[in-house]
């Protein structure tokens, strides 16, 4: 009998090729054995049936042909026996992990190949094939579990609880494995559990959690790892508590606590099919029963559970939206009228009714359907229609997966592949199978639409729906291509990075641990966030920068409500975070600042120095004056809020560069004055006041140097300050705990620094640098005005006189501040040897450049590079020191730009030269501010600012040679 008579012409080429490949691989003896079985003269019908089955299987499954080619004796076994059986490997004969993996993979490939043969040959129906594949999974899991447990016990001893009882491990099978419905290329969804914490009793003991985690990891590797022999099963652990971010194994008390406090409706839905599929250790059977009893109240309520209807309705709506959005016409699992819809019909009724109707608490869908009809939950005849439709879809699913041993449920688009599939399943042509599929899916679709139907359903799929669906299923591998396309089209590029960020958040343990209300708010926020992010210039950047903020407010979900109910806040938030990681980081560390964004007008309205000082006074009036900690926190909150406003005004263009520095400087001055007032109150309460001092005139002033002195403060700048007093140092304060005046002002300065620098929950106010005081770190923290003058006239280095150019009083005694300004002017206007000054300035500049300049052939250091900011500052300082004797007006101001303008007004520098330096200085500082907001170093490409650098270098040569 020729096999060709059972093969239609359109498949003969493929069959011939695969048959010849098999014959060449196994040798003449095996070919003869199979042919003899096919030509059995005792039963012509049997012979014809076997021949027809062999041809269908070879046409329908390349996987089958490959496996039978690798194992020559398999095909004869399949043809000659009604059932090759399934027996567990002998663990005692397995000496290594590699051997275990090989044995399990060979067993898996043999059983899968037999399931393909029995199905295509018409010897097994789908329940029989699924039952055998489920049995295979149970055997493989149990074998791997037992083998690895034995090795763990040898190394670490038996895990025991605190009473010394050995602790078993129970493996829960979820989904199709739990329901005994496993198909050819299914993943297996598992949850690992053990009863109680404790420690193992070996020479190298482990805590039970670590012991069972290692056991679980080794079990997964033995099943999931891809070797030369393939894999056994892909293992999915995402259904465990907290998903991927949760512990791999949980003890019973932790499971119970999670499901009672954190469990969500979809987890109840999934738990319907859960059952122990493997267990190991003394008392394992009792432990498995105990675990199921523990989970039952979570899965099934003791009443008809109408509370779950809204959650099920959301699940159903999500399914429908996915189908509409993605056009899953050819997907027999996820598409309209597909396998998933049959499962939903059954499990929805089980979840609602299973608490009062224990008969419905069965896992296998084919057993549930008739019970639902019997109980009046399905119309008469519907159960049989659904059963038949479901079995057809599952058989087609088997046929699809049998071809390449791949997890797919999508009908092939190629006509020849469709014809091969139909032939393997016993149809003469594709049109016959297609007709049955259309009818079956129509039955399912009709029943699905009747299950907990929402009051109204829109047929239109909206942009919001798409983002809802993406967020809800961003972790699912089968949805990945669709979501990548959606993200790419919305401007999230690279889309894979955006999807990974979303999946990481979705699966994060902190998200899984949210209470129901918090999770609902997050689920409302994310689609809004994605839609808003798609409107900014760099959606991925905005998303990545705003997610840390989102994580920081998850447990304070009132902020999620603020975002959800205020679309302008969300839009502005994304714009600001996209423009500046500095802003994003500030908001993530201090989410309370989101309140600042409620008033968009105020957020972007620049303030004057007086506005900031007045706002701070009003802010501090709301704080208990006796509570220093609260006052320190209030100062920090105010600073953070103002800093956010200034940064927002900068990135939106509401505030130009020079005004940004002004605003940041005014903010620092207001906070210094307020902090000094607090410090004064504390120190005077304890020690009294120096003679002649008062809260209005403390006889103490804070002198600003550097950027603060020059009104050029940037985001995150330190404060360079020096403390000056003019009290008699040998006199004492008038309090009960009197101290000398120098000690008083030293303690005042120390208390002020404490208020500014202490890292409270909100961080420090400012980092303070006092090293510019006379004699630096070796000098007194506070100096008298007379001592300051003496040091500057007799001991100060030229670079200290340079620093004096940018000094000014910023807080404290106004009288003393005026006296300091007068002294500063005298010191700067002193006569100097210009040649010596020039040499010392150049020498100091060269030292700084050697130690600090990060420029090279490819990059330019904005601050320290040749022709950069410091060169301009040094020229300004040189000019001030060299020429102030002739024109005192040039040292009236402390900022570089107004000094340069003063040099022009005094006729000491050509207007065009000063203008070029001012333009270069503004350009450098503007870029420096931009980089600071991007949290990047002040270094740019070497080909930037070439004209500016040339101008500065030329002027340097002219002034300083």
Would you write up a description of this structure?
With 961 residues, the protein is mostly helical. Strands 2, 3, 5, 6 and 7 form a five-stranded mixed sheet that branches. Strands 8, 9, 10, 11 and 12 form a five-stranded mixed sheet that branches. The protein has a two-stranded antiparallel sheet with strand order 1-4. The longest helix has 31 residues, at 126-156. Helix 33 links the parallel strand 9 and strand 10 (768-769). The protein has four domains: 82-299, Beta Polymerase, domain 2 (2-Layer Sandwich); 302-451, Four Helix Bundle (Hemerythrin (Met), subunit A), CATH 1.20.120; 655-828, Beta Polymerase, domain 2; 829-961, Nucleotidyltransferases  domain 2 (Four Helix Bundle (Hemerythrin (Met), subunit A), Up-down Bundle), CATH 1.20.120.330. It is elongated, with a radius of gyration of 39 Å. Residues 820-854 form a coiled coil.
What topology emerges from the helices and strands here?
Blueprint lengths: L8 H18 L1 H11 L5 H17 L1 H9 L3 H7 L16 H24 L5 H31 L2 E3 L7 E5 L1 H4 L9 E7 L3 E3 L7 H17 L10 E2 L12 E3 H10 L3 H7 L3 E6 L3 H16 L9 H18 L12 H15 L11 H10 L7 H23 L10 H10 L5 H21 L12 H10 L7 H10 L5 H12 L2 H4 L3 H18 L5 H15 L4 H8 L1 H13 L1 H9 L10 H4 L5 H13 L6 H24 L5 H31 L12 E5 L1 H4 L9 E7 L15 H17 L10 E2 L12 E3 H10 L3 H7 L3 E5 L1 H15 L5 H19 L6 E3 L7 H15 L12 H10 L5 H23 L5 E3 L4 H15 L1
Parallel strand pairs: 3-5, 3-6, 9-10, 9-11
Antiparallel strand pairs: 1-4, 2-3, 2-7, 8-9, 8-12, 13-14
Helix pairs in contact: 1-4, 2-5, 3-6, 3-17, 4-6, 6-7, 6-16, 7-9, 10-12, 13-14, 13-19, 14-15, 14-18, 15-16, 16-18, 19-23, 20-21, 21-24, 23-25, 23-26, 24-26, 24-27, 26-27, 29-30, 29-31, 30-31, 31-33, 37-38, 38-39, 39-40, 40-41
């Amino acid at each position: 009998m020729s096999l060709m008579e059972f093969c239609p012409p359109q498949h003969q080429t493929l069959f011939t090729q695969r048959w010849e490949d098999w014959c060449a691989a196994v040798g003449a003896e095996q070919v003869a054995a199979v042919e003899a079985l096919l030509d059995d003269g005792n039963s012509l019908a049997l012979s014809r049936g076997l021949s027809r089955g062999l041809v269908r299987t070879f046409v329908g499954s390349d996987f089958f042909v490959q496996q039978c080619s690798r194992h020559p004796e398999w095909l004869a076994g399949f043809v000659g026996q009604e059932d090759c059986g399934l027996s567990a490997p002998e663990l005692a004969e397995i000496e290594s992990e590699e051997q275990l993996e090989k044995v399990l993979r060979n067993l898996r490939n043999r059983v899968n190949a037999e399931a393909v043969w029995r199905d295509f040959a018409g010897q097994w129906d789908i329940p029989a094939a699924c039952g055998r594949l489920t049995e295979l999974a149970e055997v493989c899991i149990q074998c791997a579990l037992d083998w690895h447990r034995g090795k763990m016990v040898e190394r670490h001893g038996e895990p025991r609880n605190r009473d010394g009882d050995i602790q078993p491990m129970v493996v829960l099978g979820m989904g199709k494995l739990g329901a005994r419905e496993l198909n050819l290329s299914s993943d297996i969804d598992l949850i690992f559990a053990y009863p109680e914490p404790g420690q193992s009793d070996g020479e190298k003991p482990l805590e039970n959690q670590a012991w069972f985690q290692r056991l679980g990891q080794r079990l997964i590797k033995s099943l999931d790892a891809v070797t030369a022999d393939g894999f056994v099963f892909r293992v999915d652990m995402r259904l465990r508590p907290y998903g991927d971010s949760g512990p791999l194994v949980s003890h019973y008390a932790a499971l119970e606590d999670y499901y009672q406090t954190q469990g969500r409706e979809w987890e109840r839905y999934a738990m319907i099919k859960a059952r122990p599929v493997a267990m190991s250790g003394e008392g394992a059977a009792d432990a498995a029963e105990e675990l199921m009893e523990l989970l039952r109240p979570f899965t099934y309520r003791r009443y008809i559970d109408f509370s779950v209807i809204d959650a099920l309705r959301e699940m159903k709506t999500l399914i429908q939206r996915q189908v509409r959005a993605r056009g899953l016409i050819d997907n027999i699992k996820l598409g309209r009228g597909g396998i998933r819809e049959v499962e939903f019909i059954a499990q929805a009724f089980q979840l609602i009714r299973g608490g009062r109707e224990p008969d419905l608490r069965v896992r296998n869908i084919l057993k549930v359907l008739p019970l639902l009809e019997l109980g009046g939950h399905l119309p008469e005849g519907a159960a049989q229609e659904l059963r038949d439709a479901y079995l057809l879809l599952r058989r087609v699913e088997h046929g699809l997966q049998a071809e390449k041993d791949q997890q797919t449920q999508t009908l092939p688009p190629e006509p020849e592949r469709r014809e091969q599939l139909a032939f393997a399943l016993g149809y003469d042509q594709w049109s016959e199978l297609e007709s049955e599929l259309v009818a079956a899916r129509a039955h399912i679709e009709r029943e699905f639409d009747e299950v907990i139907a929402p009051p109204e359903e829109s047929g239109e799929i909206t942009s919001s729906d798409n983002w809802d669906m993406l967020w809800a299923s961003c972790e699912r591998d089968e949805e990945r291509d669709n979501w990548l396309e959606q993200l790419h089209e919305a401007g999230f590029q690279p889309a894979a990075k955006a999807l990974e960020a979303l999946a990481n958040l979705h699966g994060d343990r902190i998200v899984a641990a949210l209470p129901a209300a918090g999770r609902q708010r997050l689920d409302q926020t994310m689609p809004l966030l994605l839609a808003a992010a798609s409107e900014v210039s760099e959606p991925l950047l905005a998303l990545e920068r705003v997610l840390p903020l989102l994580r920081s407010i998850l447990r304070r979900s009132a902020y999620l409500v603020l975002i959800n109910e205020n679309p302008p806040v969300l839009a502005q938030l994304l714009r600001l975070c996209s423009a500046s990681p500095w802003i994003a980081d500030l908001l993530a560390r201090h989410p309370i600042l989101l309140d600042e964004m409620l008033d968009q007008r105020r957020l972007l309205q620049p303030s004057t120095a007086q506005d900031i000082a007045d706002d701070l006074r009003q802010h501090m009036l709301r704080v208990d004056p006796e509570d220093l900690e609260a006052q320190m926190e209030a100062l920090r909150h105010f600073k953070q809020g103002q800093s956010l406003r200034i940064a927002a005004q900068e990135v939106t263009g509401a505030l130009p560069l020079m005004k940004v520095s002004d605003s940041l400087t005014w903010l620092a001055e207001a906070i210094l004055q307020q902090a000094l007032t607090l410090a004064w109150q504390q120190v005077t309460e304890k020690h009294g006041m120096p003679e002649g001092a008062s809260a209005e005139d403390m006889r103490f002033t804070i002198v600003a140097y550097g950027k603060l002195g020059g009104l050029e403060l940037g985001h995150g700048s330190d404060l360079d300050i020096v403390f000056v007093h003019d009290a008699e140092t040998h006199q004492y304060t008038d309090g009960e705990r009197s101290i000398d005046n120098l000690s008083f002002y030293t303690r005042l300065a120390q208390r002020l620094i404490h208020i500014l620098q202490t890292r409270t929950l909100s961080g420090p106010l400012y980092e303070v640098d006092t090293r510019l005081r006379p004699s630096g770190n070796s000098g007194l923290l506070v100096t008298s005005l007379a001592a300051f003058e003496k040091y500057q006239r007799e001991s100060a280095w030229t670079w200290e006189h340079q620093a004096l150019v940018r000094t000014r009083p910023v807080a404290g005694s106004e009288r003393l501040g005026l006296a300091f300004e007068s002294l500063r002017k005298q010191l700067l206007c002193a006569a100097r040897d210009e040649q010596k000054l020039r040499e010392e300035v150049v020498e100091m500049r060269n030292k700084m450049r050697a130690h600090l300049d990060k420029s090279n052939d490819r990059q330019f250091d904005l601050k320290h590079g040749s022709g950069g900011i410091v060169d301009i500052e040094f020229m300004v300082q040189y000019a001030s020191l060299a020429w102030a004797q002739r024109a005192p007006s040039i040292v009236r101001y402390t900022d570089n730009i107004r000094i340069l303008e003063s040099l022009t007004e005094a006729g000491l520098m050509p207007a065009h030269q000063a203008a070029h330096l001012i333009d270069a200085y503004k350009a450098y500082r503007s870029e420096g501010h931009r980089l600071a907001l991007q949290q990047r170093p002040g270094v740019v490409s070497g080909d930037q600012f070439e004209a500016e650098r040339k101008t500065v270098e030329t002027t340097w040569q002219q002034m300083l040679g």
